[in-house]
Fold this sequence. Notes:
This protein is of the alpha/beta class. It has helices at about 1-15, 30-40, 65-70, 90-95, and strands at about 20, 45, 60, 85-90. It starts with a helix and ends with a helix.
Amino acid sequence: MKCESSYFRLQLEECTGILVLGSSLQVMSGYRYAWYAKLEGKPVYIVNIGPTRADNFADMRISAPVTEVVSMDIVDFQFRKIDKDRSIDMWRDHL
């Protein structure tokens, strides 16, 4: 696990942010990656239907099925803030 963690830390230095797709981040390794990214000042974006452990520090959270978000025409998709907690609830808005 230590080798894997070291590899991730090196990769984190190269990236501009973290995108979490379809995970509650209940497993420590996934949560740790999001947490380290935030500590490094990198943005954390989350797409998940339910709540995640990183919601309180995510820069943006979209509540929608991952397949709907990743299949959207990116040109037509506009990130919009619906409320103060940086959440977008596309799932609820389209029911």
